[in-house]
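Appendix C reproduces, verbatim, an entry submitted by the partner laboratory led by Prof. M.T., so that reviewers can inspect both the input and the predicted structure.
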Amino acid sequence: MTRPPSRARRVAPAVLVLGAVLAFYGRAFQRGFTSEDFLLLRLLRQDPPWHGFLAKLASPWLDLQLFKFYRPVSTLLFGIEDALFGIAPLGYNLAHTLVHAGNSLLVYAIARRVAGRAGEGSAPAALAGTAAALLFALYPLHPNAVIFAASFATLFAATFLLAAFLCHQIARERSSPPWEAASLSLFALALGSYEAAAVLPVLLVAHDLLLDRGRPLRARLAAWLPSFGLLGLYFLLRRHLFGVFVGGYEETGRRLLAPQLRQLLGDLAQSLYRLHVPVFEQPPAPIAPILFLLLAGLLPLLYLGFSPTRRDSLRPWLFGWVWMVVSLAPFAFRPVVPGSGRYWYLAAAGAAFAAAFLAHALVNAWRGPWHVLPAVGLLALLAGWAFLLAGYLGIYVEAGRTAGSITEQLERALRTPGGAPVFVAGSPGFLLNGAGVPVAQVFHYGLADAVSPPFAPAGPPVYPLPPLAAEELQPLAAGRPTSRIYEWEPGSSRLRQVVISPVPAAPSAAELAVLAPADGARLGRQDLAVTFRPGAGRVFRLVVIARGNPNVTEVPAAPSPGGTVRVALPRDFLLAMDRLYGGDFYWWMESRDERGQLLWTRMRSFWLAPTRNNGS
């Protein structure tokens, strides 16, 4: 008779995983807020999610139709954090790190049950679970989900999804309707937290087909039907709110609704390779994804699948790969960078499953001196990921320091009396690595929200500028000569005031004539366009400045018979910025003639006429 494991052996994996998470992420507990952190916490303070929560259950996230997000549950949890922690980042960082540790323990519990269903004993199953949990816990791109507070939806939804999956496993083991009901309830919470949770029913089907083979088809269908029914209701709600069943960001929605097979397969191959080799210092060789799929995908499939004695160990490994591919689907299989690593948070669990189950399958299959090689390979993968994680965490800590330094110096500058508004050039959206890849957010959003006082709706009119050469600031200086312009110098970590040479009062040869709208105009939705005379310009840049972030669009000049050009303003961008910030918008057009001389319109302002719902 097999003796049950001791209490120490039962709690050892949890202690090991929790210790690993705290050891690595502890250095980031004091990391300051960055980017969307400032914006979202300000919005939560203006409109706490428990105010009218029932109405928010039937509304788009933040009343924004543009992004097609539905996240009332995760937003409520983030609002509770805001009520508890206020403007102290330590509370958010610690809480989210503990949630990540909890998610890693859920990965352990899931992997242990998968290994057990494949015929492993309790000790090997526990080892497989521990390996998967550690790989997931120390995955290098997770800082974007764990210590970037604005990624709360990814983190909370993963908790609900993993818990729902675990409840389904327990329900299958015990034939327990209450556990299935718990799984369905958790799935509903996951769907109310993040769009990518919609993959859960497919993961349940994959689990049951690969690992729960002893049940009749009718019993399986009965177990799957509630989750697919709930998913159908969720899609109908999305159709009602957004006019589409799927999609989040507009580009991703287009790729999902009108997929191009060749592009999707290419992105999938790149993503699977980068998921396992998250090194972004240089582009991968074109052959690298193909070699990876052959060595890590096809070769184990052939080796395990063509041997009757090893075929059972193939199923857990296949389950890990299915989990990976399915989890990448909501993002149209697009590759990510460290600055958007949250999109691979759930897919990383599949990579951890596949690696742990493959190593255990090979340990069982090989004998003699080769017996230890799979474990050595797994440890090497874990060490490599841990090394990369330490580096990325260091960059995230530096991003927090950079945001804090910019904020502090800008607050000091704003205390000095001067003209309004204030424009800031050079504030980095992301910290970049040597290859120019975005690694960590700094002020992609949130610059205006961060300064005096932080997270408050009333503050100085601060506007971030796009990257501009010195002469490209002439439209701004001509249009608002009393305004102040500051520039962030990353080399010296200094915010300096920029002084632009006065522009003559009379229009120069470089200034283009604007016919509409008038400076300071109030524009309705049907009026979102500008009309000007193009002069010698042929291709123009439309620059629109909002308090959230700037928008720059290249537009060809197609003069009308009257010699004027009419260009549409970016409607969706304006509606979103008006919902998030309100206030004035600024714009100008710029181009160059055949000699390279800059042509420009003087910067002008406008604001949007109030509507019943600016977000719709």
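The chain has a mean pLDDT of 89. Additional entries are available on request from the coordinating office.
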